[in-house]
Design a protein that fits this description.
The protein has about 475 residues and is α/β, with parallel strands linked by helices.
Length: about 475
């Protein structure tokens, strides 16, 4: 009996001692080689040692509730392409320029400029928050024209951003802070990252009609009706040229009507200019829509990117421009853009900005760039024509494929639905986004007939 009481007392004492230890998150040593950690938080497994039950801590992640994110709809295409072992595979998903041999291309003028920069021995010090002053000057002049009144009157607030995406994100933060509750109208469809940017910035958005699947063209009437119906003072996101993903742009007359309606409704235009000079081969022609709105005396925003037209994809160089009604307003807007940029990324990268500043600011290099850009735009026009010719020759039904030629820039909307696009990949090893968009910049003349076969098969044999 005494032995039993002693045993119970010992067990009870041990239990109390264990509870105290658990509260203190202490460690118990069991034997010479068996150390067991008690955290008091993750006590999931029970092991019995004689009469004493002890809880063993299990290493459970604090991030257990974070689920796997879906692959990016555009960048995920490249990952799937890399895993394909077919010799016939084509990557028409990501918008990056390729040579006729389908290899990445660094512009000769960029190589020349980098060599000159290296010879000068420039340093790698931090840039100011607003970026490289020489870059900001030439990029605004390239967009609006150096003699434009908005430049001459210093009515443009320009700061260097992290390419087009970062510039759009900075503008979204400006909208969220200084135009609370204002909605952004986005074309349907649009570049896949636009919605992500405004969602993360907590800026509400809705869509306006743009693409007409019946004609594989612009639904201009629907676009105008939706802009008219939007609450007064909304931001209207417009693609300056080479609309992504459709490649369908308004005509000059249609741009005038768009400007009329936006002015009538007191909306604020917001341009995304990712392909200046790369769409038509002319820097001025591709900036004509933006300059039209500047001529109207309107206040608006423009995000720029040099990824495509200078091939500076990995340098992440671009800008956000805000056209204001006065120089004083532009100064204040610029100060707030800097304030927003500081906690986001502090200051932008220097190398790409210096490349742009040196090329655009040097007449000789600038002319070399324009010539090279015309060659790139010309190659894309060539494969667009060859694809159209191949589709027309191979399709015996008489279907009108002329919309392929009417589109502009590096992208073409094929008119294929998701099931048909899946067939393009599963059967033909042609990788593209599921909305039917293909990047002609990733197509060669030699592959046009193969692509035409794939499109015709998917269009007629998959519903």
């Amino acid at each position: 009996m005494a032995s039993t009481m002693l045993s119970i007392a010992s067990a009870s004492s041990a239990s109390l001692f264990m509870q105290d230890s658990l509260k203190q998150q202490a460690k118990w040593n069991v034997g010479a080689s068996n150390q067991i950690a008690f955290t008091g938080k993750n006590l999931d497994k029970i092991k019995s040692f004689g009469r004493t039950s002890m809880s063993v801590a299990v290493n459970v992640s604090r991030f257990e509730n974070i689920t796997m994110a879906p692959p990016d709809p555009i960048l995920g295409v490249s990952e799937a392409f890399k895993a394909d072992t077919s010799d016939m595979k084509l990557n028409l998903g990501v918008g990056a320029y390729r040579t006729e041999e389908l290899q990445p291309y660094v512009l000769n003028v960029v190589k020349k400029t980098e060599k000159l920069m290296l010879e000068k021995g420039e340093n790698k010090e931090y840039l100011p928050i607003e970026g490289l002053a020489a870059f900001n000057k030439v990029t605004a002049e390239l967009l609006f024209g150096a003699d434009n009144p908005v430049i001459q009157q210093q009515r443009v607030a320009t700061i260097q951003g992290l390419s087009g995406t970062g510039s759009l994100r900075l503008a979204a933060a400006l909208i969220e802070r200084y135009f609370p509750g204002a909605k952004v109208l986005i074309s349907s469809p649009t570049w896949g990252n636009h919605k992500n940017i405004f969602n993360d910035a907590k800026v509400p958005w809705s869509e306006y009609r743009y693409y007409d699947p019946k004609t594989v063209g612009l639904d201009f009437d629907g676009m105008i009706a939706d802009i008219k119906a939007a609450p007064e003072g909304s931001f209207v996101l417009l693609h300056g040229c080479a609309h992504n993903p459709t490649g369908i742009d308004p005509t000059p007359e249609q741009w005038k009507k768009i400007a009329d309606v936006i002015q009538e409704k007191n909306h604020i235009p917001f341009f995304d200019v990712a392909y200046q000079g790369f769409a038509s081969g002319s820097l001025d022609e591709d900036a004509s829509s933006v300059r039209l709105f500047a001529e109207r005396g309107m206040e608006f925003l423009v995000a720029q990117s040099y990824s495509k037209n200078l091939g500076l994809y990995g340098e992440r160089v671009g800008a956000i421009n805000v056209v204001c009604s006065s120089a004083d307003a532009a100064t204040r807007v610029k100060s707030q853009l800097k304030r927003l940029a500081r906690p986001m990324y502090s200051n932008p990268p220097i190398h790409g900005a210096k490349i742009v500043a040196n090329i655009v600011g040097n007449p000789e290099l600038f002319n070399e760039w324009k010539q090279e850009m015309e060659l790139m735009a010309g190659r894309i026009k060539g494969v667009r024509q060859k694809l159209y010719d191949s589709l027309t020759a191979k399709d015996k039904t008489g279907k009108d494929w002329s919309y392929v030629l009417e589109q502009i820039g590096m992208f073409s909307f094929t008119g294929l639905n998701k099931a048909q696009s899946d067939n393009m990949t599963d059967k033909w090893h042609v990788y593209m986004t599921k909305d039917g968009r293909i990047s002609l910049a990733g197509l060669s003349l030699a592959k046009c007939e193969y692509l035409a076969d794939a499109i015709i098969d998917s269009f007629y044999n998959v519903s």
